[in-house]
Design brief:
The chain is α/β, with parallel strands linked by helices and 393 residues long. 46% of the residues lie in helices and 15% in strands. The structure holds pyridoxal-5'-phosphate. It comes from Halodurantibacterium flavum.
């Protein structure tokens, strides 16, 4: 039977991870994969996570199955973190998933069941797994303009013009904060305008929240989502705990749907559990329970928030230091946009030949479209990368 299979090529992020692993050079620098790194270039387990894990080892008495939707305490704690009191709990359906990717997949499956002819609108550019998952699930997709490469900022007018075309029942995928790959985020006013537009057109916002706490702050990063949730009757959410809890490999995430009323919530809650059953039955529990333990304990929560804030500020510092270093090495402020963007990623905008030269001649790995993980820079690599970029463009 296997002779019918055609090899699937890995996406550009996974491809680059493999190339980096295969590169034998000592001083190689990975700015491709989206993981946060400290000053020593490591991605340590957060202290709050270690403490929660110790607590679990000591107190957990069973690893028997939980429910199909996962641990209720985790879902409730995450509802608070994401939505605050923007909508009544009785309207929110939620189920645990394997990471944020699993959440995006389950939400798309829910959309396909509810409205198979819906078009899912994605930003141009976006995280490559968005179009890939939409295609795998078999939904239609269209792109809306998002980023102005000339200015390194949001293409506000283009975005609003394109989204004025969305149909009733169409789904508009938005990045909750720290847009991947551009780092160009929506301002509060943009969220407000979008909420009005989408409510008017009867379309459903789908907010992918993978970096809460990495942008402007834990609460501020949820501001746009909460604005939309308060104004649009149906909202889809995919959330990941991979980055802000550093739980990458533990696969903690959740799919959430805000419904029109409590009756619809009951139906959607059942569908999310049923979809979990069809795809993997029970969601991973360990990471979710770590998150619940942290969010449910005042001391652990304070430790976690302070660690998260340290990470966020380090990313901001990297951005400023890297933009300064590039100003010196290129004698221009061409890369000044790096300072204003948010989160782990920016598109460096130097073209494919320069990206290839960085990799081949300097052992510096960026995604082929120029996406760069700013959180992967350290005090010692910033001058090296800035010199190499100046030499490569
Ligand atoms: C926009 C976006 N959504 C979702 C995810 C999902 O992450 P994970 O599946 O590792 O939780 C990521 C991770 O890179 C992302 O960038």
């Amino acid at each position: 039977m296997f002779e019918t299979l055609r090899p699937q090529s890995p996406d550009k992020i996974i491809r680059l991870m493999q190339m980096f692993r295969d590169d034998p050079r000592m001083g190689k620098i990975d700015l491709g994969v989206g993981v946060w790194r400290n000053a020593a270039g490591q991605t340590p387990v957060m202290a709050a996570v270690k403490a929660a894990e110790r607590h679990l080892v000591e107190t957990q008495e069973s690893k028997s199955y939980v429910t199909l939707a996962g641990d209720a305490g985790f879902l409730e704690a995450m509802r608070g973190l994401l939505l605050g009191d923007a909508v009544p709990a009785a309207r929110v359906a939620a189920a645990g998933t394997p990471g944020g990717t699993g959440a995006v997949r389950q939400i798309l499956e829910l959309v396909r069941l509810a409205r198979p002819d819906a078009t899912v609108w994605i930003s141009e550019p976006t995280w490559p797994n968005h179009p890939a998952l939409i295609d795998t699930v078999g939904l239609r997709r269209k792109s809306y303009r998002y980023y102005d490469a000339e200015t390194g900022a949001l293409d506000r007018a283009g975005m609003m013009a394109d989204l004025a075309q969305v149909g009733p029942g169409d789904v508009v995928l938005l990045h909750g904060c720290c847009h991947n790959p551009t780092g160009a985020d929506l301002a509060r006013d943009d969220w407000r305008q979008l909420a009005t537009l989408l409510a008017e057109r009867g379309s459903v916002p789908f907010v992918d929240m993978a970096y809460q706490g990495f942008g402007a702050g834990l609460e501020q990063d949820a501001d746009g989502l909460r604005l939309i949730a308060a104004q649009v009757p149906e909202v889809l959410i995919a959330a990941s705990c991979s980055k802000n809890f550093g739980l990458y490999r533990d696969r903690a995430g959740l799919a959430m749907a805000i419904c029109r009323d409590a009756q619809a919530q009951g139906v959607v809650q059942g569908m999310l559990a049923w979809l979990n059953r069809q795809n993997f039955a029970f969601p991973p529990d360990h990471g979710a329970r770590v998150v619940q333990t942290i969010l449910g304990d005042a001391d652990l929560r304070a430790t976690w928030q302070s660690e998260l804030e340290t990470m966020r500020l380090a990313m901001d510092r990297n951005r400023a230091a890297f933009a300064d270093a590039l100003r010196q090495t290129t004698r221009s402020d061409r890369f000044g946009f790096l300072r204003d963007q948010r989160g782990m990623f920016s598109l460096i905008g130097i073209g494919a030949p320069a990206i290839a030269r960085l990799r081949e001649e300097h052992g510096i790995y960026l995604i082929e479209d120029g996406r760069m993980n700013v959180a992967g820079l350290t005090d010692s690599t910033i001058p090296v990368v800035a010199e190499a970029i100046a030499a490569s463009i």
